[in-house]
Amino acid sequence: MMTITIPFLPYRLFFLYIEPISALAGAYYAAFQPDAYLKDLSFGSAPPSVALDVQGNMVLLQLANLYLLFALNEHFVLSSTTSLKTWRRLLMGLLVADFGHLITMSAVGSGVFWRVWEWNAMVWGSVGFVYVGATMRMCFLAGVGLQALPASVKNRA
Questions:
Q1: 132 burial class (0-12, 13-18, 19+ CB within 10 angstroms)?
Q2: Most buried residue, 84, 92, 115, 151, by most Cβ within 10 Å?
Q3: DSSP 4
Q4: Which residues of 82-121 are buried (b: 16+ CB within 10 A; e: fewer)?
């Protein structure tokens, strides 16, 4: 029986290391620098003044926990299997979450999606990096870089 591996290095590098580490950074920022997190989550006009109450702090801690879950799931699940079926299913779920994440950014106006010259570091992470992740997922799901696998293996997975 042939062992199936995810052959295209950019996928392994991005999904097993770069994206989970980025999610851990987001978790840290939301949990341990909540005022800065909210202040930096602005676009266009001057950043809002932030007075974080107990409930707002709880929400950011819950967000940090979800970033942690995202990072651990992506790294541990994908690094523990060579099943293309498992990779596809997990990455499809994350692609849906990418679009959901982008929708949340629409509250600051449609310019947030294309006026890159106005992006601060948080918007680069919340929009630009999500564009990269979604593009990587769509390429994987479309089979880009996976053509080297025999058809019988691709069909089985």
A1: middle
A2: 84
A3: P
A4: eebeebeebbeebbebbeeebeebeebeeebbeeeeeeee
Per-residue pLDDT reduced to its tens digit, 17-67: 999 999 999 999 999 999 889 888 877 765 666 678 999 999 999 999 999
**Which residue matches tokens 């978790």?**
27
The tokens of 24 are what? 């851990």
Residue with tokens 């995202």: 70
Q: Which amino acid is at 148?
A: A
Confidence (pTM): 0.86
Measured in whole angstroms, how far is the alpha carbon of residue 121 from the centre of its chain? 15
Q: Residues 4, 54: contact at Cβ < 8 Å?
A: no
Q: What value, to the nearest 5°, has the Cα angle with vertex 49 and ends 43 and 52? A: 110
Indicate the average pLDDT of the chain: 88
Q: Which residues are within 8 A (CB) of 85 and not within 5 positions of it... i.e. 6 or more apart? A: 157
